[in-house]
Design brief:
This is Sigma-54-dependent Fis family transcriptional regulator. Keywords: ATP-binding, Nucleotide-binding, Phosphoprotein, Transcription, Transcription regulation. InterPro entries: AAA+_ATPase, AAA_lid_NorR, CheY-like_superfamily, Homeodomain-like_sf, HTH_Fis, P-loop_NTPase, Sig_transdc_resp-reg_receiver, Sigma_54_int. The structure is a single chain. By secondary structure, the chain is α/β, with parallel strands linked by helices. The chain folds into 3 domains: about 5-115, Response regulator (Rossmann fold); about 140-325, Rossmann fold (3-Layer(aba) Sandwich); about 330-475, Helicase, Ruva Protein, domain 3 (Orthogonal Bundle), CATH 1.10.8.60. The chain has helices at about 15-30, 40-50, 65-80, 95-100, 115-135, 140-150, 160-175, 190-200, 220-225, 245, 260-275, 300-305, 310-315, 335-350, 360-365, 370-385, 400-410, 425-440, 445-450, 455-465; strands at about 10, 30-35, 55, 85-90, 105-110, 180-185, 210, 250-255, 275, 285, 290-295, 320-325. The strands form 3 sheets. A 5-stranded parallel β-sheet has the order 2-1-3-4-5, with helices on both faces. The protein has a 5-stranded parallel β-sheet with strand order 7-8-11-6-12. Strand 1, helix 1 and strand 2 form a beta-alpha-beta unit. The structure holds adenosine-5'-triphosphate (ATP).
Length: about 475
Amino acid sequence: MEPHRRQCVLIVDDDGAVQVSLALLLKQAGFATVCADDPRQALARLAATPVDLVLQDMNFSLRTDGEEGLALLAQVKERHPGVPVLLMTAWGSIALAVRGVKAGAANFFTKPWDNAQLVELVEATLQLAPDAARATSNPPRSARAALDARFDFGAIVGEHPKLLKVLETIGQVARTRAPVLILGESGTGKELVADAIHRNSPRAARPVVKINMGAITPSLFESEMFGHVRGAFTDARSDRKGHVASADGGTLFLDEIGELNRGDQVKLLRVLQDQRYQPVGASRAEQADVRVVSATNRELAELVASGEFREDLFYRLNLITIRLPPLRERRSDIPLLARHIGAGVCAAYGLDDIKLAPAALDWLAAQPWPGNIRQLRQTLERTLLLAGQDRPGGRPLTQADFIATAAVDEGVPGARLGVDGMTLEQVERHMIEQALQQHTGNISRVARMLGLSRTALYRRLERHGLGDGEAGDRSNE
Ligand SMILES: Nc1ncnc2c1ncn2[C@@H]1O[C@H](COP(=O)(O)OP(=O)(O)OP(=O)(O)O)[C@@H](O)[C@H]1O
């Protein structure tokens, strides 16, 4: 690729054969390379030579726990924060790789590697690097304003450095067609990120087609995704376009990708590999030009390690990974989010513009929020509706109003939002049960209250064994 001709990659590995074969591969792809045998040499090379990217092994002595690799990563990040690091890990040490990525590595790959995929990964990582380096040197406020001047992030509110890093990456990747994997806990805004990637891409005028992988029945996967021709099966009375064809020229958003079963994973892989698919019952394959963005609240790399998710599909999807921070890691954004969401709720329900007292904002900022922004939205909505009506002189809502609403929800005087000791799954179930009770099972209202689509709610009801699922009610989703 032309723009990367003179970029330099530092290869850190104690195995001479690995150094030679990687150097040869990267040179053929147009990069300059330098090699180092161990962390000490690597840091010396970095100090002496302008390096654009580091490819590093995780073990350099008889130790095999990867701690030496993590220590080197930490030093590179401290001394050269703008230089992206790719980790080389042995098969079976995905948990280590995930630790590395959380500690600042741009991505990882396992040995033995696929040459073409590795070069693609190096190129994609380098494309992201220069702006990421610039972003870290900007003060946060002007950084958000500067980003807004260049990109349209829609409803994404926030200016915490961790969010700014996400926004910067969105801006960088949007213009490419590289697949993006969005990771983050439930309710952190993954769908908003997918929307922003599409909106800022050259594909913005074409459709973004969103599919919830957990909601597709395995027997219908092919016909839903690829369509079918008339007569392909008993009920196929006419040709039907699948999601892939509908997204032609645009973006395919595969939500909850971790829920896809292994049989369907291989069918999806084929589309990603050669942009071709075969409608059910058709005699030949069709071409589709789609950009794939996927999301999950599960740690996909761990599903690869446990054998539930195909490794080849994982590498296809995660060329670029965006990790959304949980709300508790960007607490400084909570007042901003609360004011924004509060104003939206008032407008939606025709309430006067209700203010939040500073102490209430502090209280909200201190809560654990295991359900993240979705839970914050739900709490604000309930409190504004319950306490917002009855405020002598239009006084701002206080901390006491929020605590009182939480207590009503819990059915326990003085109960708090705290969910200590509960797993995320238990919290989710608990929230759904509360909502069902409050709205006496009215699915549309429960879905709205939880900030979910009805399809997503039905799937969760099924998963938690709640309610009877009333399948017919999904029709207008
Ligand atoms: N940065 C943000 N600013 C404003 N609102 C946000 C932000 N992030 C998320 N939200 C709101 O929080 C709710 C949850 O967001 P979203 O559906 O994108 O989360 P998600 O990570 O896709 O969740 P899930 O994994 O459960 O599908 C939505 O109502 C969304 O509008």
